[in-house]
Write a structure and sequence with these properties.
This protein is of the alpha+beta class. Helix content is 70%, strand content 6%. Strand 2 and strand 3 form a beta hairpin. The longest helix is centred in the first third of the chain and has 40 residues. It is globular. The two termini are 46 Å apart.
């Protein structure tokens, strides 16, 4: 433990600096992190006095270095402009830094996390792109092989390897989604936080996401030829049975059968119960945190299999003389872009009409975080700019911004959800799965649940596609194909998520009378 004195702060940093240097963090970024941490601790000293103690821990989470500071006392967010929180210097330092900094409050303890940005290696996305094109080249070169040789390759090597990879991913997917959602609810803080602003915010998030899922399905329905397959009559009994099927008979069978809807239901109920019980189950929530990190670490390790899976899936399609499947999937790209533009247009017009603001002004103010998300495909990278835009450009209260932006970037992802819907329709058509009204209902419900609970880690998409296709009766070999398509979608959906979150926070803060409309309407 350290005191909030200059000498103790310097002593605490020495160990952190050694840790960062050993993890090959850029020297200039280490200096910026030191200034950020010192400014944060000085804010706490001004608030609590020099006698307040703090702890500083350095750990590696999912292979990434992380610095965590803990201070016991009243809730105080050093990154909020309210109540003498974030200073001008701290805000400037955070904007200059490539690292991610966040605050949370739980069981009487303030938690500050600093996650430095490491030197970029060849990403999984880059490897997947390379695997995709290598598979096409290898497949075209091998198309003229003798049929017996191609059959031997498919039955003895490619298919068994793909089945093994899918077995690994399937085994991880259920527990990973369960613990990710359970821990995500626990990090809200306590039931009081949830009941004040959080309950209304989360309720609105859920309603909008359900509407986006339904509208995305209606948008896609006319474009895919597979919609004429199977029975087109609506069976209410089947609809009702699917609705009841969300609630499991017991707590074990969902994990054995891989029923994603039931797993998410159990996680949501369990998370709310843990919030209600609060500090009485603090030891259990710690165990859940560790289990979440464990499953996410396993998934990160399994990510090395993703480029292999993409290569084998595309190679198998070409070797099986199904090359037309790839060319027939072209329309999924303009359909998704069109759907994304429609979502952005509708959300913008709702804000323009209800808040009486110029649409050009709205887009200019959201342009910085939007373009960062569009060009990087990373929500954490756009977090700092988004926090600043929401509070200083849109006039949203700091109380909503500090809680809503981090929470929203975790669970409010309309772009990601609509991606699941579009890809589901595309794969169903390519693999001759009947797109009946009841199939559409299952798609809407499953995509909605995955849109809320998709794990925010590398490999999260492959987990979601695995459980989604299992629910919809789409062959697992379609996952590699879907991941190849998803490379382009990642950038678009991240930008859509950021844009829609800002629009929704404007609407929410206005309904709570926590929006400065003069700031919102001021031209940039």
């Amino acid at each position: 433990m350290y005191m909030l004195s200059d000498s103790e702060i310097a002593r605490a940093w020495e160990g952190a600096e050694t840790f960062l240097c050993s993890n090959k963090i850029d020297h200039a970024e280490v200096i910026r992190l030191r200034l950020i941490l010192e400014e944060i601790l000085l804010n706490y000293r001004n608030r609590f006095g020099t006698d307040c103690q703090f702890s500083l821990k350095t750990v590696k989470v999912l292979g990434k270095p992380k610095i965590t500071v803990q201070l016991t006392g009243e809730s105080f967010n050093p990154f909020s402009s309210d109540e003498s929180g974030e200073t001008e210097l701290l805000g400037r330092l955070r904007r200059l830094s490539d690292s991610t900094s966040s605050w949370s409050y739980k069981n009487g303890v303030n938690y500050i996390s600093l996650i430095p940005k490491q030197k970029i290696k060849l990403s999984t996305t880059a490897k997947t792109i390379i695997a995709f094109f290598l598979a096409i080249i290898a497949g075209l070169l091998c198309r003229n092989l003798d049929d017996s040789i191609k059959g031997e390759l498919l039955t003895s090597y490619i298919t068994p390897t793909l089945n093994m990879i899918m077995g690994v991913i399937t085994a991880i997917s259920g527990p990973m989604i369960f613990f990710s959602l359970l821990w995500g609810i626990c990090t809200i803080g306590d039931i009081n936080t949830l009941s004040k602003i959080g309950k209304r915010m989360i309720g609105r998030f859920m309603l909008i996401l359900l509407l986006v899922s339904a509208l995305s399905a209606l948008f896609c329905y006319p474009f895919f030829g597979g919609s004429n397959a199977g029975s087109t009559s609506f069976n209410f009994a089947e609809f009702y049975a699917n609705l009841l099927n969300v609630i499991p008979d017991n707590m074990i069978s969902p994990f054995i059968t891989g029923n994603t809807q039931q797993i998410i239901f159990l996680a949501a109920v369990g998370g709310i119960i843990l919030l209600i019980m609060g500090s009485r189950v603090s030891a259990l929530t710690t165990v859940i945190e560790h289990l979440t990190l464990m499953t996410q670490t396993i998934m990160t390790l399994a990510c090395v299999l993703i480029p292999i899976m993409v290569f084998l899936s595309i190679y198998k399609v070409i070797l099986s003389d199904q090359l037309s499947n790839i060319s027939n999937a072209y329309k999924v790209i303009p359909i998704y872009i069109g759907l994304s533009l429609l979502i952005l247009f509708v959300y913008t017009m709702i804000v323009v009409v209800t808040q009486k603001v110029n649409p050009i002004t709205v887009f200019k103010k959201v342009s910085q975080p939007f373009l960062i998300a569009l060009t990087t495909g990373s929500s954490p990278t756009a977090l700092s700019a988004n926090l600043e835009s929401c509070e200083k450009k849109f006039g949203i209260s700091g109380k909503i911004v500090s809680f809503g932006v981090p929470l929203g970037q975790t669970i409010f992802k309309p772009g990601s959800l609509s991606r699941f819907v579009v890809v589901s329709f595309c794969m169903a058509e390519l693999y001759d799965v009947a797109i009946t009204p009841n199939w559409v209902f299952i798609t809407i419900l499953t995509c909605f649940l995955l849109g809320v609970s998709s794990p925010p880690v590398a490999g999260g998409a492959v987990v979601c596609f695995a459980v989604l296709f299992r629910q919809l009766g789409i062959p697992e070999e379609a996952i590699g194909f879907a991941l190849a398509i998803n490379i382009l979608f990642d950038f678009i959906l991240t930008a859509v998520n950021i844009y829609c979150l800002d629009m929704e926070l404007i609407r929410l803060s206005s309904s709570l009378k926590m929006l400065d409309k003069k700031v919102l309407r001021d031209k940039v």
